[in-house]
Every structure is written in structure tokens, then in C-alpha cells.
């Protein structure tokens, strides 16, 4: 084994050991990892705005402007949207008897229809059996919810602390991001620092534009749904708008779930309201997919629709809800990394392949009687 091969083997083994040790350490400090991941998301989302404002002002001032706007949005969320949405949740609880009556009628109609269709050939549970089973499940759910009120309060306080810590930490990420970049490049051989630095900048740009673009799309979708539903006096307009805004962050699946939930919430207000809510959400979703996404997300993702679908479903199957949300940026980042490592190898292999040029040469016959003989083409292959 030559010295260069041995050195590469040692490097690979060292990288594997470091990665395994990092994963084991992360498994023991999940809350700290959560804070750093949330802070990284916030920093990535704010980075494009900070970079744009940095052309006109110093970096600290740009960060201060961006976070002032972010905190203002959070204050509006806390003082306006959350209380109204909470009031609509209480209204939903007040309409619970209407939903129960509607569900009872639906079950009764379904039971009679199935019995008329199947007769006694297939045993079906009676309406009373279904009602008892549903009552038992609802009672068990309410009992567990009441028993876990303390855990819910503790979880809410913990989430508030984690969110505040992540917000503060994201400011330090933006302030000292260049120092972190230089620290990472210090471990790279000098001959490759320029290429690795370009790769890091492209990764940050892709992920940052995705996070910022996705947040903007979710806000636009939520606002558009509320604008369409509020004039129709839909009782849960703001609550459905919030659900749609959050659901749009989950590709393919989120808006379908939001549309089903909105239709169910519109049942007490009649069939006309159900149709209007369904149509409004469908139109907003289609406009966002076909008009806004190409304009906002085209530069940040840059992957084919087939790759997007595969990344979403594969991420959801492997990692659940986080995989559904992060499948698309993961595919985009993987494309950048593969392009950095694989494309130079392919170009080098193509340049090393010999090329053959065929030259047609016509050879004439000798003088005399042979001069009348036709010329014969000869193909000569030249390999440079």
C-alpha cells in the first residue's frame, strides 16, 4: 500500500469516526441540538434579507433591521392572530353538539344504505354499537387530555424558552457567520479552500433562499385564504387561514389535509359554505403552485418535479413530518454537492477519452492503361 493510499484511508476512517461520535453526542443532547437547528433555520431565512441590506448599510445595522421586522411580526401574531384564533377554537368547541348530531345522521344514513345494499350477507355494527364505541374513545381522549394539562403547560413554557434562545442564537450566527466559515476552511488544504468556500457559499444561498421563500409563500397563502373567506362570514376564517399557511409548508399533503379540515369546519354553516371554502382554498393553492412558486422558489431549488416528489415522499417515509418539510431543500443541496464533486470527475474523464477522426482519401490508379481505372476511397483513422 502506497503512502497516498494509506493517507486517504486514514482520512476516511477519521471522518467516519468523527461523524459517528457526533451522532452519538447529538443523541444525548436533543434539546440543545433542537435549539441550534431552529436558530440555524432562522438565520438561513434572514440571511438573504441581511445580504441585500448589507449593500446599503453595515452588517450589524442590517441584522438589526431584519430582526426588528421579525419581532414586529411576532408581536402582531401574539396580540392579534393568536387571540382571534383562540376565540375561534372556543367557538368550535361550542359547535361540538352540532358536529355530533351531523355525524350521527351521517352514520345512520351510511348504516341504512349499506344494509339496503348488502342485506344480511355481511354483518355490520349497529348504530348503537358505533355510538358506544365513539363515546368510549372520546371519553378516553378527554381523560388523557385533562390528565396531561400539566405536561402541556410545561411543554408550552419549554417551547417558549427554546424559541427565545434560538432567536437570540440566530443573531450570533449571522454576526459571526464569516468567522465560522473561515474556521471551517482552516481545516481544508490551501489548494482546495477556494473551491470549498464557493461550495459553502452556494449551499448557504440555496438553503437560505428556500427558507425565506417558503416562509413568504406560507404567509401569502394564509393571507389570501383569510381575505377570501372573511367576507363570506365564515366562522373559522382566521383559524382555517392559519391552518392553510402552516399546511402549505408540507408539499402535496399539507394543503389536502387543510382543505379537508376546512370543509369539516364549514359543515354547520351549510352546503354552500362548504363548497365556497373548498373552492377558495383550491384556487389559492393552484395559484400559489403555478404562479408564485416558479417566481419565488425557482432560483433556490432548481430541481425537477420528479425529483421533488421523490424527495418529499422519501423524506416523509424516512423521517416523518420533518422529512416532508425538508425533502425539497435536501434534494437541492444534494444536487449542489454532487455537482461539485461529480461534475469535475465527469469532465476530466471526457477530456481523457481519445477521439478518432475519419479522413476520406481517394487514391488514383497508375498511368497508362491503368489510368482509366476508377479511384478507390480509403478511410484513414487519425487518433490525436
Number of domains: 2
Distance between the termini: 35 Å
Mean pLDDT: 75
Poorly predicted spans: none
Strand order of the largest sheet: 1-2
The main sheet comes to: 2 strands, antiparallel
Query: SSE string, helix = H, strand = E?
Result: HHHHHHHHHHHHHEE
Tell me how many strands there are.
2
Apparent shape: globular
Strand portion, in percent? Answer: under 5%
Query: Nearest-angstrom radius of gyration?
Result: 32 Å
Structural category: mainly alpha
Number of helices: 13
Residues in helix, %: over 70%
Characterization of this structure:
By secondary structure, the protein is mainly alpha-helical. It folds into two domains: 30-175, no CATH class; 189-351, no CATH class. The chain has helices at 3-28, 30-53, 59-94, 96-118, 127-147, 149-175, 177-185, 193-229, 237-247, 254-265, 271-301, 305-319, 321-352, and strands spanning 357-363, 376-382. A two-stranded antiparallel ribbon has the order 1-2. Helix 2 crosses helix 6 (149-175) and helix 2 (30-53) crosses helix 8.
State the main characteristics.
384 residues, mainly alpha, two-stranded antiparallel sheet, 4% strand
Short description:
This protein is mainly α and 384 residues long. It is 79% helix and 4% strand.
Helix-strand blueprint:
Blueprint: H1 3-28, H2 30-53, H3 59-94, H4 96-118, H5 127-147, H6 149-175, H7 177-185, H8 193-229, H9 237-247, H10 254-265, H11 271-301, H12 305-319, H13 321-352, E1 357-363, E2 376-382
Helix pairs in contact: 2-3, 2-6, 2-8, 8-9, 8-11, 8-13, 9-10, 10-11, 12-13
Amino acid at each position: 500500500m502506497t503512502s497516498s493510499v494509506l493517507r486517504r484511508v486514514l482520512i476516511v476512517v477519521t471522518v467516519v469516526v468523527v461523524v459517528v461520535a457526533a451522532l452519538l453526542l447529538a443523541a444525548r443532547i436533543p434539546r440543545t441540538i433542537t435549539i441550534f437547528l431552529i436558530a440555524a433555520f432562522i438565520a438561513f431565512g434572514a440571511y438573504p434579507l441581511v445580504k441585500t441590506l448589507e449593500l446599503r448599510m453595515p452588517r450589524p445595522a442590517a441584522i438589526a433591521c431584519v430582526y426588528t421586522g421579525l419581532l414586529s411580526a411576532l408581536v402582531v401574531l401574539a396580540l392579534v392572530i393568536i387571540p382571534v384564533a383562540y376565540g375561534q377554537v372556543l367557538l368550535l368547541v361550542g359547535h361540538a353538539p352540532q358536529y355530533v348530531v351531523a355525524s350521527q345522521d351521517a352514520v345512520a344514513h351510511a348504516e341504512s344504505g349499506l344494509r339496503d345494499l348488502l342485506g344480511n350477507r355481511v354483518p355490520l355494527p349497529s348504530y348503537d354499537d358505533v355510538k358506544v364505541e365513539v363515546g368510549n374513545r372520546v371519553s378516553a381522549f378527554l381523560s388523557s387530555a385533562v390528565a396531561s394539562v400539566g405536561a402541556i403547560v410545561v411543554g408550552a413554557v419549554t417551547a417558549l424558552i427554546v424559541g427565545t434562545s434560538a432567536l437570540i442564537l440566530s443573531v450570533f450566527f449571522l454576526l459571526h457567520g464569516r468567522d465560522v466559515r473561515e474556521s471551517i476552511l482552516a481545516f481544508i488544504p490551501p489548494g482546495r479552500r477556494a473551491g470549498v468556500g464557493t461550495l459553502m457559499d452556494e449551499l448557504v444561498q440555496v438553503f437560505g433562499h428556500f427558507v425565506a421563500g417558503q416562509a413568504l409563500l406560507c404567509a401569502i397563502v394564509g393571507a389570501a385564504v383569510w381575505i377570501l373567506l372573511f367576507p363570506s362570514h365564515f366562522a373559522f376564517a382566521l383559524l382555517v387561514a392559519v391552518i392553510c399557511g402552516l399546511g402549505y409548508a408540507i408539499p402535496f399533503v399539507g394543503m389536502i389535509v387543510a382543505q379537508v379540515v376546512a370543509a369539516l369546519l364549514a359543515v354547520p354553516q351549510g352546503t354552500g359554505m362548504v363548497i365556497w371554502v373548498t373552492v377558495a382554498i383550491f384556487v389559492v393553492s393552484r395559484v400559489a403552485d403555478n404562479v408564485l412558486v416558479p417566481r419565488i422558489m425557482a432560483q433556490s431549488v432548481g430541481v425537477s418535479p420528479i425529483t421533488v416528489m421523490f424527495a418529499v415522499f422519501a423524506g416523509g417515509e424516512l423521517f416523518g413530518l420533518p422529512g416532508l418539510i425538508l425533502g425539497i431543500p435536501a434534494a437541492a443541496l444534494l444536487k449542489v454537492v454532487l455537482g461539485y464533486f461529480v461534475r469535475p470527475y465527469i469532465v476530466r474523464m471526457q477530456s481523457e477519452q481519445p477521439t478518432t477522426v475519419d479522413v476520406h482519401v481517394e487514391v488514383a490508379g497508375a498511368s497508362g492503361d491503368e489510368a482509366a481505372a476508377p479511384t478507390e476511397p480509403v478511410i484513414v483513422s487519425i487518433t490525436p
